[in-house]
Amino acid sequence: MVNAHVWHAGTVNRTDRPRTALHAFYCRRDKPQQQYQKRLLGPEVQQSLSAELRFLLALDDVLNDELSATVAVRSGFLK
User: Fold this and answer.
1) Which of 17, 23, 49, 50 is most buried by a 10 A CB count?
2) How far is the C-alpha of 33 from the C-alpha of 55, rounded, in Å?
3) CA distances (Å), 38 to each of 9, 21, 44, 57, in order?
4) Could you tell me the CA-to-CA distances from 70 to 3, 23, 30, 32, 66 in Å, in that order?
């Protein structure tokens, strides 16, 4: 496990605007997603995505649904 503060100096947002962040997590397709994208993306967003993005997010992957839908672990950002 790596503390992002070491690499990115992520600290309190002292501005009056939200901070955008990108959290990358790479895993094999036969492992559960850290964040189950189908649960996080609304239907209208999912429908607007290209076939390539749907593939990358495994939105139409039945095996991913089986692996990820029941995983209760969530990153600290979404608790």
Assistant:
1) 49
2) 13
3) 31, 20, 11, 8
4) 27, 21, 15, 9, 7
Instruction: Give me the average pLDDT of each 10-residue run along the chain (79 residues).
Output: 60 83 74 83 94 91 85 56
Write the single-letter amino acid at 73: V
- Cα distance between residue 59 and residue 57, in whole Å: 5
Q: For position 8, what pLDDT does the model report?
A: 60
